[in-house]
Design goal:
The complex is a heterodimer of chains A (138) and B (163). Chain A has 138 residues and is mainly beta. Chain A is built from 1 helix and 9 strands; from the N terminus they run βαββββββββ. Chain B contains 3 helices and 5 strands, in the order E-E-E-E-E-H-H-H. The chains are: A mainly beta (138), B alpha+beta (163).
Amino acid sequence: MAQTQVVTDQGIGELILLWREEPASGMESIVCLDNATVVTAAVGSTFASPGSTSAHHTDSGLLLAAIDTVAGDTTNTAGDTILFDHIFTATATKNVAGIHVCNNDDDVAFIECGFNAVLAMESGDTLTIDGQSTIDQA
Amino acid sequence: MTDRNVSFTRATTAGGGAKVSLPGTLRNGICVDCNVKMEVREVWIDTKRTVDGEVVVTPKQVNRPVCPICGEMKGQLIVRTTPIPKPKPPEGIKPKDFRKFIKDSLLLDILSSYHTRRVAFANANRPEIKEIPERYRTGEPSPKTLWQAVKAIIGLRYTICKI
């Protein structure tokens, strides 16, 4: 299974809310997905219902946390990219199958990612996420 | 911004739209420089956000493995995942467009298979347990052609070829 990553329908819906000048939320938090098998990212996934019937980790350093760095950038047209970096430190042996990038109200998953294979993390291991999302015409 | 996988930056969808690239880097708790076990400590880091065009830096306390000798917070690389993009749709209805699309799809499928096996292999052979070729941990260089990808999978499948 390939590593899969998508901007979810929920994420696009939140972006359109912003364009319509309705209350919308921004990218704020990140959480690891718990699954014993590989996760396939799906556009229909939501914060409450991650892809491949995964669950959010709720402990051991892999739980929902504020993203370390969120910054704007340019790939093709000015300001078309958002960069986000985060480091998780595991405090117990856990499987990580993917991640969710979420909003500041912790009720919307903007991005879902399922890794190439399930990562078996042990206490003291770190997982660095170097994310990039671009919305452009190219 | 560290460890960004810059050599494989094709997006997940072809054409305009929303594209995501999310490589993950897994490291163990052994200092990359001193080769000693690091201790998980509470440290202060600077979180950065862009607000109204200005970068706002806020300190945050987090758990990080820290080397007791050099103070470095970087462990040995276990594995780096590789995002695989979807193939570009055919640009026209000519047979050559479809041939190209089928060729690209095949390559990406075999490439996916290689990276899936590579990540599982590197993850099962952590650096503190077994030394394996660096290309299986980093995913670089990634195969560029069908033949290279098939060869790389054969290399991963048979133990004697992994060296």
